[in-house]
Design goal:
The chain has a domain of 65 residues: Tumor Necrosis Factor Receptor, subunit A, domain 2 (Ribbon). Helix content is 0%, strand content 20%. The protein contains no helices and 18 strands.
């Protein structure tokens, strides 16, 4: 509330998104990162946005949820922070990001999901920004895996592609698998 003229007995309530102290002759907009739901008698300060919320503009009546892929871990924020590479946040209005698990990655900031490692690649670590090709003599024909599988005895692979029993040069002078081999699997696994 404010006095329209100095010494006036009557006070006027501030509009929503504004505040004043006892001796003010005008209302002021709440700064970015805060809000005032007003009009309320005696509003002398604005309320900071809670964790997971933000407000970029002054004079606001509410705060907004941080979008997916972003967070705020403190109160009174005027912007949300994007999740770091290798991390994600799938839900709006949150206070922390989560690490991508083994077999997944994020290569950009602000991810709301982790990507699965493509076929012929793997990633054994968490919170990573890329996947690695399977080493020679191993393959991975599934997405989102944390390890590659050894080729069967007598078979080989080219940079982690399908295990092969015999090869032939194609027109571009690279080898092409003619007879795909079975992979050696540990008993009881489906990887």
């Amino acid at each position: 509330m404010f006095q329209k003229t100095a010494g006036s007995v009557a006070c006027t309530p501030c509009d929503p998104g504004f505040y004043s102290d006892e001796r003010a002759t005008a209302c002021l907009p709440c700064p970015a990162g805060t809000f005032a739901g007003g009009p309320a008698a005696g509003v002398v300060s604005c309320t900071p946005c809670q964790k997971g919320f933000y407000n970029a503009d002054p004079g606001q009546t509410t705060c907004l949820q941080c979008p997916r892929g972003t967070v705020t871990s403190s109160t009174g924020n005027s912007a949300c922070e994007p999740c770091a590479r290798g991390e994600y946040q799938a839900t709006a209005g949150q206070t922390e990001c989560f690490q991508c698990g083994a077999g997944t990655f994020t290569s950009q900031e602000g991810a709301h999901i982790c990507e699965l490692c493509p076929k012929h690649t793997y990633q054994p670590n968490e919170a990573t920004t890329s996947c690695m090709p399977c080493p020679k003599g191993q393959e991975q024909n599934n997405m989102g895996r944390s390890e590659c599988i050894k080729c069967t005895e007598g078979a080989d692979s080219c940079a982690g592609e399908y295990c092969c029993l015999s090869r032939q040069l194609n027109a571009q002078n690279s080898t092409v698998c003619l007879v795909p081999a079975l992979v050696s699997r540990k008993p009881g696994t489906s990887k």
